[in-house]
Design a protein that fits this description.
Helix content is 77%, strand content 0%. The chain has 458 residues and is mainly α. The chain has a single domain, classed as MFS general substrate transporter like domains (Growth Hormone, Chain: A, Up-down Bundle), CATH 1.20.1250. 57% of the residues are buried.
């Protein structure tokens, strides 16, 4: 009973701390917002809004090879995996500004080239460059906060920074709808042009004149309260939010991964990997799948995505409340079930055509998108609570498992779609989600509390 009371008290304290953080960020926005955040908004519009819709449409229109889409989108995701490299380069080489602006320039050049080049190889190279540029700009954007701002301001500043990125995604998705009726190349060129003002805004208010803050010879952001950050809006980048604030890969944690497999933390990582692997193909193919299987035009898919992503921003706060009261494991499973329901609708419609299939498919698609804030908050909380090591190492493994699963899942979807058609995509997602739910069996609130109690500082 005493343990349960302590767990409840800790949960309430965490909840109060999150709400206080959110109120502080909303009460004095000017204190935490910088002009260069507009550059991050434009990056969200381009890489989380326009690219995920228009790039698959352009590739299929030119190549007529449905498997090619997965390889090109997989190359983009592969480029995102370079985030730790850019973080290391920026911090150790004191190259924050060159890496930040180089990232924007790389995305701009890649998007301008994509409609011009032809063939799987050139498309993959350009997409990988766009992904690497996105990773560079996004990683250093977070470092401009955690390496320069006072520690007490990290969470509110990153919250607003990610909020700008999320707002940009919504704008980008709405804009993508205007180009989704065949103007794919024009849309990608417009996306490239949007990054020109981003280069201007990105230079306004950057904290490059001050030395980066250090503590005991180490970067203090390794101790960032990841659970508090999870309450803040995050862009649904390809439906999974690959770019989080953490960019360090802890090699010691990676070497100990084998010993972690049978721990609650290891089981959660397995669940997160299965979930991310299963849905990766869907977020590579979703505009093509919705058009081909359910007769939903890409413009309507983009609009639905934008509305669901916008509505989902409030779910970050609500999910935090639910996790504090019901336990992060239950909230995580609720998010899994919501996605199971969404993909289940799509699979049923693919197997048994029904009247008003387009409307039902859009409802399923909206459920899939709305589940992400729930999964993000609960998953981040579970990773921190269950970790038998420090939170920095735990978040490195958490992010790495999602990133690798997304890359593997995207590439794996290509040959499967080529052989079996688009119907395999929701089936693959359901398999991953069901596996993720089964893998989590037994990880209840008591297990979370035990894992959190065992965690040691970095």
């Amino acid at each position: 009973m005493a343990t349960a009371d302590a767990t409840g008290a800790n949960g309430m304290a965490m909840h109060r701390s999150r709400m206080a953080l959110l109120r502080e960020a909303l009460r004095a926005p000017r204190r935490y917002i910088e002009p260069w955040y507009l550059a991050y908004l434009l990056l969200g519009a381009v890489t989380a809004g326009l690219v995920p819709v228009l790039l698959p449409l352009m590739v299929i229109a030119v190549s007529h090879g449905i498997g090619t889409v997965a390889y090109v989108m997989g190359a983009f995701n592969l480029g995102l995996l370079t985030s730790p490299l850019w973080g290391l380069l920026a911090e150790r080489g004191r190259l924050y500004r060159p890496v930040f602006f180089g990232g924007f320039a790389a995305v701009l050049g890649a998007l301008a080239a994509l409609p011009v080049v032809a063939g799987t190889g050139p498309w993959m190279l350009a997409a990988a460059l766009a992904g690497a540029g996105t990773a560079a700009a996004a990683t250093v954007a977070s470092l401009f906060v955690v390496d320069f701002a006072p520690r007490a301001e990290w969470e509110p500043r990153i919250g607003w920074l990610q909020g700008f990125n999320g707002a940009g995604q919504v704008v980008g998705l709405l804009l993508a709808g205007a180009f989704s009726s065949g103007l794919y190349s024009s849309g990608l060129w417009v996306a490239a042009l949007l990054l020109v003002p981003a280069l201007y805004f990105g230079g306004r208010g950057l904290p490059v004149a001050r030395a980066a803050r250090r503590e005991r010879g180490r970067h203090v952001h390794l101790h960032l309260d990841v659970r508090a950050l999870a309450t803040m809006p995050r862009a649904n980048l390809l439906g999974g939010g690959l770019l989080r604030h953490s960019h360090h890969l802890n090699l010691a944690a990676l070497r100990s991964l084998g010993a972690l497999v049978r721990t609650p933390f290891g089981r959660f990582l397995g669940s997160w990997f299965l979930l991310s692997f299963g849905v990766a193909g869907f977020f590579a193919y979703f505009p093509l799948l919705m058009r081909s299987s359910y007769s939903v035009p890409p413009a309507l898919t983009s609009l639905t995505y934008a509305l669901a992503a916008g509505a989902g921003i409030s779910l970050f706060v609500l999910a935090s409340r639910w996790a504090a009261s019901a336990g992060a494991a239950r909230v995580y499973l609720a998010g899994v079930l919501l996605r199971v329901a969404g993909f289940g609708l799509l699979l049923v419609l693919d197997l048994v055509p029904l009247a008003a299939a387009d409307a039902i498919a859009l409802a399923g698609f909206a459920a899939i998108v709305l589940a992400w804030p729930i999964l993000s908050v609960a998953g981040t909380d579970l990773a921190a609570r269950l970790a038998p090591m420090g939170e920095g190492a735990a978040m490195g493994l958490f992010n790495a498992s999602q990133a690798l699963a997304t890359v593997f899942g995207t590439f794996a979807a290509g040959p499967l779609v080529h052989v079996f058609g688009y119907g395999v995509v929701p089936a693959l997602a359901l398999g991953g989600l069901i596996g993720a739910g089964v893998w989590m069996r037994g990880l209840d609130a008591a297990g979370e509390a035990a894992g959190g109690a065992e965690a040691a500082p970095d």
